[in-house]
């Protein structure tokens, strides 16, 4: 199988038996394949492979327009209805590949009709593996429409896990800020949480609209209760979007609270420095005045002059302290 993937770009080809299971077929089996009445076909390609692109354009039976759209470099979540009750579905999934940012979501492009699903991806996507495992266990999709639902459900489940992780990290930071006055939340971490929430929200908003469209516009080859499942997926995404928006607001509140604490600490510091400066200013004036080297300084010839000067400075300090207490500055 790895050799075939490298040569053809075919990740897997499955014939659904209509009872939750499937059998694998090879690249060579696809042209001569004949489906039984209850069977459906799901083919999953690596779109970066030239052989996969060539098959899509020359042997899939799809129009040039459909092939061009499926092979676009940059896409966003959207739904295109085609003649003959066919559709194109572009979804995004959480990027769980090594050294990747989760909010850098992976694109899944899907063409589907009543008996056939053709999906393409550029980077590995765990959600397709989930559906594949379900089929191998005999509890997977039974029809082409259920393959779409299975893929969408697996994608949404990964979003749920990531949103929970973001909320948990934010809870930890909020708890530390509330319990430890000296703790300063790392700004880069907080900004990273906000960036991830914003990145996820950017793709999930149109994806939620796709699920709503599939709820409202039921195709003839959908199973009877498919619209209920699409509606449930739409509601789940609404909840995740609300939680992501809440994460962004909570991050802003933590940053604002930390900024307020820093301003308060700075104000207290400046206030204390101002008090100390004001307290020592008169004494600095006296010592500076008495320290000039000119004639006529009072007490310069008096053996008790230094003691008298110290007593005078002490009296000024005590007088200032009384005034500051009366003004409630100290």
Describe the structure.
By secondary structure, this protein is of the alpha+beta class. The chain has two domains: 259 residues, CorA soluble domain-like (Beta Polymerase, domain 2); 63 residues, Methane Monooxygenase Hydroxylase, Chain G, domain 1. It is built from eight helices and seven strands. A hairpin with a 5-residue loop joins strand 1 and strand 2. Helix 5 packs parallel to helix 7, helix 6 packs antiparallel against helix 7 and helix 7 runs antiparallel to helix 8. It starts with a helix and ends with a helix.
Distinctive features:
330 residues; Beta Polymerase, domain 2; Methane Monooxygenase Hydroxylase, Chain G, domain 1; 2 domains; 57% helix; rod-shaped
Layout of SSEs?
Blueprint: H1 2-8, E1 10-16, E2 22-25, E3 40-46, H2 50-58, H3 64-70, E4 78-82, E5 86-93, E6 106-112, E7 116-121, H4 126-136, H5 144-179, H6 187-216, H7 226-290, H8 305-326
Parallel strand pairs: 3-7
Antiparallel strand pairs: 1-2, 1-3, 4-5, 5-6, 6-7
